[in-house]
Amino acid sequence: MIKNAHEIFVKTFDSPLNMECSQYQKCLGDENESEPDTRELALNRQGLSKLPTNYILDNIVSINLEENVFCELPQEIFFLRSLKSLNVAKNKMKLFANEVGNLSNLEYLNCSENQLETLPSSLSMISKLLVLNASRNNIVSIPDELKNLKRLETVDLSYNKLREVPTALVIGSKCITYLDLSHNSLKDFSKEPKCSASLKSFKVNDNCMVELPVWMRCLHCVEELCLGNNPFTCAPHHPLDNMMPLASLTMTKLSINSCSLKNLPISLTNMKNLTYLDAGNHLSYLTVDRKLLNSLWDISPALNLSYLKELRLPHAGLPVLPDEFWKRLNNLEVLDLEDNAVVWLPDGLSSHIHLTVLILSCNRLALLPNEIGAVKSLRELRLDRNKLNELPETIGNLENLIYLDLYDNEISEFPTSIGRLHKLKSLDLELNNIVIDESTIKVFKDFPSGYELMRKNLRSRFLPQNDRLIGSKAPPACNIPNVESDRESDSLSWNSDYQPEIQESMKNIAIVEEDDWDKTDGSDDFFDPEYSKALKNSVGRSQWHWARDNGRWVPPVGSDVFCPADIHPDLIPRSSKKEGPETSDGQFDDVDD
To answer: What's the pTM?
Structure first.
């Protein structure tokens, strides 16, 4: 008898697709633990299409045939009345024979990653079945007879072709604690299953649900809930705002990625014990209907989750972090803010003594605060594709750092403090304004592996990154002209290797001075509207952006004088002058004064 089927399914087998029969056997009762190894038969990954004849199958309790080429269950198995565990995952089965119902003592069945379109109704005769994994098949329906499996505790039907919730689940076992129906085509889940009160892990992400059923909003015993990538109707209110009207003390893991959210739902305030929250967009979803994507502006409801350990908000368009972000979420261990629009980090980062993974890739950071050096628990720091000009010297204090990604920034001086990171194994400094040569790599003389090997280690870990280049960004050929002196020319010269599109687009542009630009205070000496217009059209960024991001523009006047770059780095199109009939001299001489 299995002691706890859900614990076996989730903890012993981290993924339902990688279940080992031998591990399952160890979780059986005390009587079975004392049985000899001859009661287990492991023939996985042997390329078999039928069972070998030189095995004695009497009294076998566990058979593992995973990752072979069986097209059907071997007939010999149907006579093994003592069999309790059967793993036939990753084969080529299209049909289960009805004789499988003869396995009356079977408690664990894994038939995932086959080509099954349905399950045999004779499964209902296996009254002792506790774990059923039929994920990653082509199943379109489940026989109603399976409602008789009253002892089922774990059911995985993910990655199939179900369009309706199986009746066998709705009126079947009350004991199901783990139910995974993700990656199907379910639209209506309005009927409450009998197991709703016992569910601890419930996954219905990646379906076609437009409404969140009332019963699903009040799962007060659930610990893990995955609702992501469903086209929920947002009018007049997002259905997730009404989730958990009463406080939930059991919910610890919530996934609501790609649910058309504009703000984090206020219902998060009733989930005080959350330790994991995923409310971003997964990379694989960015090519689907953009209406499904989360586009977050306000994440303040998350600040009440003081027990939160892992927060993932990738690809969510988040423009800024709240001022109290670090202070309120001081138990974070993993923070993923990849591909947002964050330009600065608020104060308080130094208080995070548990943070081990910090992902800030593809943002707009121009400065990394000095207090980053106080987070000595950091093991992974990803800062690639930002606008960093330099690294703080305190980064050398991250004594436990293993992964450091600085790819594609604007770093112009080699960060020698990296030499103090003696545990560093992966590093990428390519596409910066520095050249990695023999003089710079001397910093790594005390490292077990050189820079080239560290770069390969990082890129192999964070795949897919096949688009990454090797080399440096050549700095501009000349600095921006001194604003205190007259301009020597009407356009700037740029290095062709740095921004070739810009140089090509600037070849035949004639700069015309505007009479209505007030330059008496010197604040607009560097502004050229026609030049900026061409620059904007070529790469989507004005010269204010370039000067600001590269630290090459210093305001020519005090802070009390208005400068366009202060509030509008992006160009605002100017309205064209209306043309009217020309007037001749003396035309209005007869008008009275």
So the answer is: 0.74
